[in-house]
Structures are given as structure tokens and as C-alpha cells.
Design a protein that fits this description.
Length: 510
């Protein structure tokens, strides 16, 4: 028998107007962590979706445990003990954790020997045992809508393990996690490897590959660049292989004298849906030529600050001023027209309409203005021309250009659409929340450059990020938030990364 548990030979896949995979051959050994590395839109997810039975290859063969298989659906993949955790989770929000895990393979009992019913208690017991075994503790009775993102990911992993998956595919598993949650997930993957599971990791995060992978394959524009041992290639060389050129995150940033005050927040207090105060008496201001970054551990109120400035939630107390005008009670559209752009954390539910095409999403905030409409009629030529330019400028990759439905493109390319649209609003306040989440190193470098370009044009930038490296690289001023309060505001030059980290944990120097 072959030592390879998986062999994908000469796999080719076409979509309208694009070659997603071209003649790719990879061989994966049992019990290894094998990473698929590439830029957004390089064909990583497509290749693994073929292995999981979501797409049929146009050419090529797949061998599992040395036997040729035709994997025409996820159910067939599941029978071959292949499982997949998708970048955007496939869970039913109003079902419990247990109900999601057993969906489709519900354990049955019979009442009075002939009336079947689902034995949910048996399922809950098995899930608890499984979660304890793999360090994935969950409460099977909780509904999905009640749990955190990282807990949802645990549920997706348990879904695979419950079905006895031996081959586990993870599509960008850390793109929605905090740094602390990422470390925990990587430990889980190493533990799964120790249980002789075969892990396939689709990612563009180089440090993660170095940390846990045995080997990795690099895809670029749908083609296989090469296969390498992770311990023999530096992250710098990985980036070069992925992008095809040297990439640096050392963004040149000249000192700028701050101009007039653009945004002023006074004594802001915000309650969440559960009626708890999550932002407590926060005050700060942002000026022209300034990147003001809010640093903090997740769920300390920073997202609510961004949302209340843009009008997505209401302030309990306090005032918001834009260019000296009180906008505390304005609608979202009025704030947008007044000069605020907003890149949200949740790109799918807040930033985009997934069933619309790229062009529609790009003009979503300006469709009622000239040149996109006149006298109530849309100007298709202007919309298409504008959208084509943005797609090229921000390197948005898709199968059918600006007419591609947004749901069908990768998360990284969805993010590029939002960032391009919001920057092109020409607002003098731009709010970036987790702007590089889900982006590869090349796209990340480009977005960082865009942020500095906008700052150098005289705009005010509010940056909210969980990535401390990102904050230290881009910020002129840093406000550190803990438990809803800003504990420290200082020029970034006067703060070390260690000091910021201490404030993030609530440690206040005397």
C-alpha cells in the first residue's frame, strides 16, 4: 500500500473566464500536517473543495489510501473519512451544538419498538466524551447563536471527529480568530496529528506554517509552484514563492504634523444587546494626518466604538462630532454623506450583500449619486467603468470580473472589495476594523500602504486591530482599551510593544 493517504494527480478545474487549478499534483502522507499556501484567489480552496467533493475536476484523478476514487459529493467524502472546516462556517444558528454535530446522522431509538425518535442525550454524551478527548470542550446544549466564533470552530471540528474523519481539511481556520484563540487552535491541530489524523491546512499565514506544518505546497494563479519542507524554508522565502516577488511589511511612514480635528468623541458610553455597558465614558479625538489606533484584547468595547461612530448602534451617553458638527443622532447614510467610511469586522453580514455582484457592491453607497444615476435611472456604463478600475487597482480576483456574485469569491477578495469601495468614498474619516484579516502578505502590504497614503492625504484614520504588530507599524497615536475604558492614550513613538501589551491586560503603571 502507498505511504500516501492522498494523491491528487494532474488536477485541473475551470470556471467561466478563469483557470482555478491547472495540472496540480500533490501527495500527502498519513499523519502529517500539510499546508497549501498561496495568495487570495490562488486556487487553494478550489483544490481542497475538489478533494471534499464540492466540485468535480475537469481533468485529473484522486487516490485515497492508494485506491482511485470519484468524490462527487461531500457525503462520499465523508464516507471516505474526509472532513472539512470551511472559512465561513456551515452551521445552523438556531440549533444547539449537539444538533449541528449530529445533523444528517442522528442516532435513533424507537418508542414502543416502532416509533423512531432522535436520542439527543446519547449524542450529547458522545460529544462530551469526544470534546474532552481532544481538548475541545463545549456545552452541547447551547445554541450556535449564543457562542463565540472560536467555539463555532470547535463545533465544526467536532462535526468531523464525530463522523470519524481521518483526513481533516481546514480552510483559513485562523482568519476569524484572536491571537490567543489562534495559539489554542494550533495546539489542537498538533494534538490531532498526534492521534494519527492527517491535517491539510489552507492558509497564507507564514508563521503558522513554520510553527506546525511538516510540508507545504505553494500555489500561484492556479498553478503549483513547488512543494517544500517547512523547516527548511524561511518565512521571507515563503512570501517570495507565494507572491512571485520580494515582499516587505516595512512600510515607509514619514512624520506628519497633525492638522485640524476631524473626529471628537466626548464621554461616550454604549450598552450592548444584553444591556451591559461595554464602552464606558470614552473620550478621544483624531486629526488630519493622524492614524489613531485602538489596541485591546477582543471584546473589550472597541468594536462598539466603531459601530457607534458610524451609527450602527446608539450611544447611551456622550457626543460624537465630525468636523465640529454633532452627528450623534444622524442616520448611517447621513454619516456616510458627511464624510465617514467604514470597513467593518464582519465583512459578510455588515460589509457586503453576498447575492449581489461585485459592481453592485462597489457602488452600494453611491448608486443614487451622479455619475452612477441620473433622474432616478442607473447609468450602467459609469458603474461598470468605475467598478473595472477598482477591481484592477485593488487586485480583486474573480471568475467573471465585476459581474461575479460576491458569495462565490474568496474571503480575502471580498475584503478587498470593501476596502476599495470605502477608500474611494473620499471621506476625511476612515474607520478600519481588522482591515487585513484574511488577507495574504502581499495584499496586507498593499492595504498598509493604502492606510498610510490616506493619512498622508490629510485624512483621519481610526484603526481597530487585534494585531499588535499592525498597530505598532501604522499608528501615530495609540489608545489602549480594557474593559470598555481607554486606559492610556499616547504617541506611538513613546510606547513599547510590551507596554501596550500590559495596558491591554489591564495592568496600569503607578
Amino acid at each position: 500500500m502507498s505511504e500516501n493517504i492522498i494523491e491528487m494527480r494532474n488536477i485541473t478545474k475551470y470556471f467561466p473566464g478563469i483557470v482555478a487549478n491547472k495540472n496540480i499534483t500533490i501527495k500527502i502522507k498519513k499523519g502529517e500536517i500539510y499546508s497549501i499556501l498561496g495568495e487570495n484567489g490562488a486556487g487553494k480552496s478550489t483544490l481542497m473543495s475538489i478533494l471534499f467533493g464540492m466540485y468535480d475536476p475537469d481533468d485529473g484523478e484522486i487516490f485515497i489510501r492508494g485506491k482511485k476514487e470519484i468524490i462527487s459529493s461531500p457525503s462520499i467524502a465523508s464516507k471516505l473519512n474526509i472532513g472539512m472546516v470551511h472559512q465561513h462556517f456551515k452551521l445552523v444558528e438556531n440549533y444547539t451544538i449537539a444538533e449541528n454535530i449530529i445533523l444528517g446522522i442522528e442516532p435513533e431509538k424507537r418508542f414502543a419498538k416502532f416509533l423512531p425518535f432522535v436520542d439527543i442525550k446519547l449524542a450529547q454524551k458522545k460529544i462530551k466524551e469526544l470534546s474532552k478527548k481532544y481538548g475541545l470542550e463545549v456545552d452541547p446544549t447551547k445554541k450556535i447563536e449564543e457562542v463565540s466564533v472560536s467555539m463555532k470552530q470547535r463545533v465544526e471540528i467536532l462535526k468531523m471527529l464525530y463522523r470519524d474523519a481521518e483526513i481533516l481539511i481546514f480552510d483559513e481556520p485562523t482568519s476569524v480568530l484572536t491571537p490567543q484563540e489562534i495559539n489554542f487552535l494550533l495546539e489542537i491541530l498538533v494534538n490531532l496529528k498526534g492521534s494519527r489524523k492527517t491535517i491539510i491546512l489552507i492558509t497564507h499565514k507564514l508563521e503558522e506554517i513554520k510553527k506546525i506544518s511538516d510540508r507545504f505546497a505553494v500555489l500561484r494563479k492556479g498553478e503549483l509552484v513547488g512543494i517544500y519542507d517547512a523547516d527548511k524554508v524561511s518565512t521571507k522565502e515563503m512570501a517570495r514563492l507565494m507572491v512571485g516577488a520580494d515582499v516587505s511589511l516595512d512600510i515607509p511612514k514619514k512624520d506628519r504634523k497633525f492638522g485640524k480635528e476631524i473626529l471628537k468623541i466626548e464621554n461616550l458610553t454604549v450598552k450592548n444587546a444584553n444591556n451591559f455597558e461595554v464602552v464606558k465614558d470614552v473620550s478621544f479625538s483624531i486629526h488630519e494626518n493622524e492614524v489613531f489606533a485602538i489596541a485591546g484584547v477582543a471584546d473589550n468595547g472597541q468594536l462598539e466604538i466603531a459601530d457607534v461612530i458610524y451609527g450602527l448602534c446608539e450611544a447611551l451617553r456622550g457626543k460624537i462630532y465630525l468636523n465640529g458638527k454633532d452627528i450623534t443622532n444622524l442616520s448611517v447614510r447621513d454619516r456616510s454623506i458627511s464624510g465617514i467610511s467604514y470597513i467593518p469586522e464582519d465583512r459578510q453580514n455588515v460589509g457586503l450583500i453576498l447575492e449581489f455582484d461585485i459592481a453592485d457592491n462597489l457602488i452600494m453607497k453611491n448608486y443614487f449619486r451622479e455619475p452612477f444615476s441620473r433622474r432616478g435611472f442607473l447609468n450602467k456604463e459609469s458603474i461598470d467603468s468605475f467598478s473595472d478600475d477598482l477591481v484592477k487597482t485593488y487586485d480583486v480576483r474573480s471568475s467573471s470580473g465585476i459581474k461575479t456574485i460576491v458569495r462565490s469569491i474568496s474571503g480575502g477578495n471580498q475584503q478587498k472589495i470593501i476596502i476599495g469601495r470605502e477608500i474611494e468614498q473620499k471621506s476625511n474619516l476612515i474607520i478600519f476594523v481588522q482591515p487585513t484579516r484574511g488577507l495574504d502578505i502581499g495584499a496586507m502590504s498593499n492595504i498598509w500602504k493604502k492606510i498610510i497614503e490616506e493619512r498622508d492625504k490629510g485624512n483621519a484614520i481610526l484603526l481597530i486591530s487585534l494585531e499588535l504588530d499592525e498597530i505598532m507599524s501604522l499608528a501615530d497615536t495609540i489608545g489602549v482599551i480594557y474593559n470598555g475604558r481607554i486606559l492610556k492614550i499616547a504617541q506611538s513613538k513613546g510606547l513599547t510593544q510590551e507596554e501596550v501589551g500590559e495596558y491591554m491586560m489591564g495592568v496600569v503603571s503607578k
